[in-house]
Amino acid sequence: MAYTTIDDPSAQFQTALWSGDDATTQNITNDGNSDLQPDWVWVKCRNTAGNGFDHTVWDTSRGVSNSVNTGLSPSQSDSEGLGDNVTTTAQLGGVSAMLSDGFTVREGTADNDSRYVNENSRTYVGWQWKANGGTTTTNDASSTSVGSIDSVYQANTTAGFSIVTYTGTGSTATVAHGLGVVPDVLLFKKRNAVDNWYMYHSANTSAPETDYLVLDTTDATTDFNIWNDTSPTSTVFSISNAGVHADGKTMVCYAFAEKQGYSKFGKYTGNGLADGAFVYTGFKPAWVMTKETGATGAWYMHDTKRDPSNGATHQLIANTNEVEYDTGSDVNIDILSNGFKQRYAGGSQNGDGDTHIYMAFAESPFVSSKGVPTTAR
């Protein structure tokens, strides 16, 4: 069996950097080995904090548009298209189109626009994942006998990524995700109401089906019956709490399944030293996010576009609208050809004896499908 089926991860995931120019729109073009038309784009302003500069995501299942802002903010609990001082989704700043190799950002028309993404003197990062080119599958649960309620999913089974939308009924239910394998990470957000971003992570605890994390807070893992205390399967995930299944509330779920040589969702134990914990992923990560699980701690994000040379010092935090923090000579993590190594002595990234979960996506596999090792970083 081949080590990996994804020799070029840039066909599935890429990171783009740009500077705002105050134009109504600006096309952001990728520079990876492959063209990538994204289906999920996650944007953060790097050098400005405050209202309008939160982490924000757009996707092709919910739709992107010049006339309606469909942004959702991972650093806030606001409903779709809103946030900060915004009172209408017609305030249009955001991602307005997906391109054959990138996306279009649109500057807003109001000072308190929901998402500043193209302001002069601002710098930005955009992380992008491919699903199925915007083509969705409607699962009629009564006719397919898959799941107990209807869902619409857009699945990339090669890369293990699916965007799922559904409407809650308030009762315990199962929902089809389209991945064909058991997902490792499920990230939920209520679209038409204020609520948190709830995450299932397969490495969270010894019984992850009984626990959850919240992306927009620093909260530790919570033991609660949000997934009906039931692990996801290769066809469905289970939901049993108003946060992910309130009656009449529209939901989106971003689902990920681990793919050898491309993605990894696991945990590590910190040692409190600058010679920190090493995490083997089987690939050179392009993007890493970590979170301490047993205590309060931020969601730390690193990538090789903002730090093309090892080690990584440019840090963003998913649960805040803070600016990017450059630690200078104090390296946060080493991003290596086969994983990453913590270099921060203690804290909520590498606390001695503390458990941390992570998500990582590849820049290149450690060994290609032909058995050829990649060049070390």
Features:
3 helices, 377 residues, 26 strands, six-stranded antiparallel beta sheet, single chain, mainly beta
Written account of the structure:
The chain is mainly beta and 377 residues long. The protein folds into three domains: 121 residues, no CATH class; 120 residues, no CATH class; 93 residues, no CATH class. Helix content is 3%, strand content 37%. The protein has three helices and 26 strands. The protein has an eight-stranded antiparallel sheet. Strands 18-26-20-21-22-23 form a six-stranded antiparallel sheet. A four-stranded antiparallel sheet has the order 1-7-3-4, with no helix packed on it. β12 and β13 form a beta hairpin. The mean pLDDT is 91.
Summarize the model shown.
It is built from 3 helices and 26 strands.
Write the layout of secondary structure elements.
Elements: E1 13-19, E2 25-29, E3 40-45, E4 56-59, E5 94-99, E6 102-106, E7 123-129, E8 137-139, H1 141-144, E9 151-156, E10 161-167, E11 173-176, E12 185-190, E13 197-201, E14 211-214, E15 222-223, E16 236-239, H2 242-245, E17 250-256, E18 263-269, E19 278-280, E20 283-292, E21 299-303, E22 314-317, E23 325-326, E24 333-336, E25 339-342, H3 347-350, E26 355-365
Antiparallel strand pairs: 1-7, 2-6, 3-4, 3-7, 5-6, 8-9, 9-10, 10-17, 11-16, 12-13, 12-17, 13-14, 14-15, 18-26, 19-25, 20-21, 20-26, 21-22, 22-23, 24-25
